[in-house]
# Entry
Amino acid sequence: SECDPVGAGAVTMLRRTYAQEMSYLERVSPTQWRVRVGFVPNMRVPGVFYVNKHLETLMFDELSQYADRGDIGGFLPAVKQIANVACLPGIVQKSIALPDVHSGYGFAIGNVA
# Structure
């Protein structure tokens, strides 16, 4: 599910197409991407992730599959998990994912808060 940092209850899932999801992502350099605030509800700071071409393909394939299937089964894509970390109380400046980033159990592996 999308982040709910104050525990106020269930957050309504946003149903967006892959193109709509991608509109929140911005290439900063050949290996750096920015996740804009608003990608998931309640983001306090932007997210940033660093990937090579191969990992970039995997990250965006994962996001595409998520957009196609909806919230039915499977892991939350790593890019969504990066954004969820950006919702945590006390986070400063940005949620950063290192080049080994991949989906975890809620907190992306390689994600640093």
Summary: Residues 4-10 have pLDDT under 50 and may be disordered. The beta strands are 25-29, 32-35, 47-50, 95-102, 109-112. The radius of gyration is 13 Å.
